[in-house]
Design brief:
Largest sheet: 5 strands, parallel
Helix content: 40-55%
Shape: globular
Order of helices and strands: EHEHHEEEHHEHEHHEH
CATH superfamily: P-loop containing nucleotide triphosphate hydrolases
Number of domains: 1
Strand content: 15-25%
Subcellular location: Cytoplasm
Number of helices: 9
Number of strands: 8
Main location: cytoplasm
Bound molecules: cytidine-5'-diphosphate
Structural class: alpha/beta
EC number: 2.7.4.25
Enzyme class: transferase
CATH class: Alpha Beta
Family: Belongs to the cytidylate kinase family. Type 1 subfamily.
């Protein structure tokens, strides 16, 4: 049997992580794990409960009492929160604009990292997030850091919204993405940054298949 490696994909919002991670996982028949969905699910529940997102103790209490399941779905990953599907709900702009405030807390990250490491313990995973190569899977055989200009990333989200028939404002998206990048990169615990041994890919002018090919090349080298 071929070696089952772990692939870590990190980078800022809308760099293309989940799109390419999903395709690479399909090609290799690996498990795709979008760790952002776990922070989003907790944020969604905390908002519903009226919790204060700056209060770590309140949030950890909620998390300790929360089951987040990431299951393979027809169009990627299906997310269940305490047994109820929330795949779409956790993508709302309210959750998107609050999630980084939840993800700053040390205890929350510690618990999330433990859960993520458990999901990846048998290898054969493509995991995307912000701290996968640096903290969650420091020994991953392949580490990739995806980048793209903020204009390009806002343009991508804008195009997604328009395609779905949602209202969209490019300038607002640009501001929101820049703000989230800032919080994610400047937080004290496990900030968004390239692992020293990660391969950086600037996707600004690359197509999705171009990025997938580059990652597949790195993966196949390691799988042998
Ligand atoms: O898909 P998008 O890039 O918009 O975001 P996401 O991957 O769903 O992540 C949402 C937020 O969760 C990020 O902005 C981070 O604040 C947090 N996150 C994190 O701190 N660590 C991770 N491994 C994944 C996400
Ligand atoms: O997961 P992350 O937030 O990093 O980004 P994503 O949700 O995978 O990608 C954001 C959007 O950019 C999607 O609509 C992709 O189809 C698009 N994309 C692109 O146009 N070119 C790429 N090289 C990668 C993604």
């Amino acid at each position: 049997m071929k070696k089952q490696i772990s692939i870590a994909i990190d980078g800022p919002a809308a760099a293309g992580k989940s799109t390419v991670a999903k395709i690479v996982a399909e090609k290799l028949k690996y498990l795709y794990i979008d760790t952002g969905a776990m922070y989003r699910a907790l944020t969604y529940k905390a908002i519903q409960k009226g919790a204060r997102l700056d209060q770590e103790a309140q949030l950890i209490k909620i998390l300790n009492d929360t089951l987040i399941e990431l299951l393979p779905g027809e169009t990627g990953q299906k997310v269940l929160l305490d047994g109820v599907e929330v795949t779409t709900d956790i993508r709302s702009s309210e959750v998107t604009n609050q999630v980084s405030y939840v993800a700053v807390h040390r205890l929350i990250r510690r618990e999330m990292v433990m859960r993520q490491q458990d999901l990846a313990k048998n290898g054969g995973v493509v995991m995307d997030g912000r701290d996968i190569g640096t903290h969650v899977l420091p020994d991953a055989e392949v580490k990739v850091f995806l980048l793209a200009s903020v204009e390009e990333r806002a343009q991508r989200r804008n195009a997604e919204n328009i395609q779905k028939g949602f209202p969209s404002n490019f300038e607002k998206l640009k501001e929101e993405i820049a703000e989230r990048d800032k919080i994610d990169s400047e937080r004290e615990v496990a900030p968004l940054k390239k692992a020293v041994d990660a391969v950086e890919i600037d996707t600004t002018s690359l197509s999705i298949p171009d990025v997938v090919d580059k990652i597949m090349e790195l993966a196949l080298e390691r799988i042998g």
